[in-house]
Amino acid sequence: MPSVLVVEDDPSIRQSLIEVLTEQGYAVRSAADGFSALREVTQSPVDAVVLDLGLPDLDGGDALRMIRGISSVPVLVATARDDEAEIINILNAGADDYLVKPFSGGQLLARLSAVLRRTSSAHPGGGVAAGAAVAPAAEPLRPTTVGELAVDPGARTAYLAGQELRLTRREFDLLAFLAHHTGQVVSKRRLLTEVWREPYVDDQTVDVHLSSLRRKLGERASAPRYLLTVRGVGIKLVAPR
């Protein structure tokens, strides 16, 4: 049975999240502030954390960085902040995914189940909610070199002009998949299905990660080098001309 730590200072929201998760078979613990959450993660490891950013003692972003300093536990951020730059910063700080408030119980369960599926191999103690469908294994990705970009999925490394890129787990998965399909236009729906393993999650999830990935590749959507958008179709990775 997967265990989840809910970090939320609002008592009514915290109780609602606990009820939704408990009904789906999760073992739930909770914390009302950042330092309590850190103690919980340190003293009794969990399979995942649902983290609010508006905490009374710590900014949630700082709490996330502290959690990342002591644990690789999957973290799903729940936030009322919908600014793209803020979300990118949170993902770069180590969040595995995010939800913008208000969200439904169904959205929470879908995102959490997806995070647990994606990280179960890296976190053997993790699990999947009872009844959750597990996506079939993806085609193994091979090392690929595109221009000055070298991506090795086995070693989980990516280099640009000889310099290692500092990518989040999701950014690397996205880049590796696109590199594996170099020159092919890949739709956002396919990325959500085969990288996120969640075909019904909104497209903004891909947009946010692509924006962050572009920045780390030294490009912008208006001046692309490796990541070309084919309007209305999808995205493809190509060698710069």
Automatic annotation (TrEMBL):
User: One of this protein's GO BP terms?
Assistant: regulation of DNA-templated transcription
Any one of the GO CC terms: protein-DNA complex
- Pfam families cross-referenced by the UniProt entry: Response_reg, Trans_reg_C
- Record-annotated Response regulatory domain positions: 3-116
Q: Where are the transmembrane segments?
A: none
Q: List the stretches of this chain annotated as a DNA-binding region.
A: 141-239
- 4-aspartylphosphate: modified positions: 52
List GO molecular-function terms, semicolon-separated.
phosphorelay response regulator activity; transcription cis-regulatory region binding
- Tell me the organism: Streptomyces xanthophaeus
Which SMART domains does the UniProt record give?
A: REC (SM00448), Trans_reg_C (SM00862)
Q: Which InterPro entries match?
A: CheY-like_superfamily, OmpR/PhoB-type_DNA-bd, Sig_transdc_resp-reg_receiver, WalR-like, WH-like_DNA-bd_sf
Q: Where is the OmpR/PhoB-type domain?
A: 141-239
Q: What is this protein called?
A: DNA-binding response regulator
Q: Which Gene3D superfamilies match?
A: 3.40.50.2300, 6.10.250.690, Winged helix-like DNA-binding domain superfamily/Winged helix DNA-binding domain
The organism's superkingdom is given as Bacteria
Write out the coiled-coil annotation as residue ranges.
Answer: none
The UniProt keyword set, sorted, is: DNA-binding, Phosphoprotein, Transcription, Transcription regulation, Two-component regulatory system
